[in-house]
Amino acid sequence: MRIKSFDMISVSLAGLAFIGIVYYLLVVAPALSKKTKLEEYIDRKKADVASMLQVKSQWETFQASRKEAEGILRQRGEDFTLLTYLERVSREAGIEKKIRYMKPVSLSDKGELYKPECIEMQLEDIDIQRLVEFLYKIEQSKNLLIVDRAKIRPVTKGSERSIELTLQVRTYRLGEKDGAEQE
After folding, report:
1. What is the pTM of this model?
2. What CATH number is associated with residue 117?
């Protein structure tokens, strides 16, 4: 029995289609799947690298700030005391007679590189202008002073209005460890 040429072409096309499907299922589809997975992996790694670069930038900024702070702490010297500095600033602002009390506040000291130091002070019968001047001199000083807490209470005596202020001012000292060791 002879196969007609039309049937021969049909069988050949069916065979080619079968081989094409098998080739697609065994070679092309797994390769495309692997390619997709690799592209997703590459995208994740690119995001990881971008995140690492951002963290590196933040770390470098932190290190620069730390070195600047250590320089300021060294520059102000060992004889710097927060209590003396606050007394001097209050004299400059003209409010030294308005101080009700100044007392040290104990903070946790775990033998770290930077030892915190804090003073709580209360001022009474102070006007807004002198308060702003006093706070400005504290916050804008080059001595790394931070106003941690401020409680402002208006006080009225007859027709006079004034303010009672309780605040905590914090700074740091270099500990026993040498700051240059911490790189």
Report:
1. 0.63
2. 3.30.70.60
